[in-house]
């Protein structure tokens, strides 16, 4: 049976529209880092590199290589960890040119260093890109977190972040990191802005 993250990992990918706790296990990712306005072409090109690598893994059986433990699955959604430069932190408004980000796409548990090496080989042959050398594979464990489903424009996310901050304070937690994670459940190219669905997440700990 095909593994579909929205059906089989509901706690992680089908959140409520109110803040709630969860524990996020260690996960595997292809990642690439960048800086600046995500509406610009450089961001789009970096996203493209991640999808090239992710589909290289997904389609490996058709390229004559079947990883040990391989199973059919839906490619996971794009995610991003967002921060600001020192200058950006000192501003009284959000300057998107001062954004720092690590964008990523989760990979199935069967992905090993050998599979990663093969994915880069396939990606390089299929779609040579100078940004490929900036992409990398890693494991991340968010652990105890609070998340919420935000519906609508990315520019209105502060409303949802405010709800999470209130929840954290009321339940005697504190943010473990200044960064936050976003998981993009909608295709921004095909979805009306008011209907965009994005998971927002903070990693937290006891005060």
UniProtKB/TrEMBL annotation:
It holds the Pfam family GyrI-like. It comes from Anaerocolumna aminovalerica. InterPro entries: GyrI-like, GyrI-like_CCH_Lin2189-like, Reg_factor_effector_dom_sf. This is GyrI-like small molecule binding domain-containing protein. Residues 19-198 form the GyrI-like small molecule binding domain. It comes from the Bacteria.
